[in-house]
Design a protein that fits this description.
By secondary structure, the chain is mainly alpha-helical. It is built from 6 helices and 3 strands, in the order ααβααββαα.
């Protein structure tokens, strides 16, 4: 089965790790010029522009012109389908975190009991 083009949906667009890096840079909600994104991610400008173009096509970023500069901003509402999909699996990592917390608390309790027993000796 052929893979869908990255410009068709947000899932394919954000599957690329470098695009997620760009989204992280834009995640603070501020508008940023391409050169700011280039500096933040350490990629060549043509690569950043290509990735931004894909993100723009799926609606995850918006662009405005400020004189000769194109300013990009995250459009987080269009990431909601990814969030909603990933949230269906939250019970798995929440359950694991609960187990880790429980084990840590048991370990701490055992250490306190051991320390109390040693103090009594």
């Amino acid at each position: 089965m052929a893979r869908a083009a990255t410009t068709l949906d947000v899932f394919n667009a954000v599957a690329e790790p470098r695009r997620r890096e760009i989204l992280d840079v834009l995640g603070d909600g501020r508008e940023r010029a391409v050169n700011e994104v280039v500096e933040a991610v350490g990629m060549p400008q043509p690569s950043v522009s290509k990735h931004l173009s894909v993100l723009l096509k799926v609606g995850v970023v918006t662009v405005t012109r400020n004189g000769p500069m194109r300013m990009y901003r995250l459009n987080g509402s269009n990431l909601k389908p990814v969030h909603d999909w990933a949230k269906t699996f939250e019970r798995y990592w929440t359950h694991q975190l609960d187990q880790i917390k429980e084990r840590a608390e048991q370990k701490m309790l055992h250490r306190r009991q051991d320390n109390n027993n040693q103090e009594e000796l």
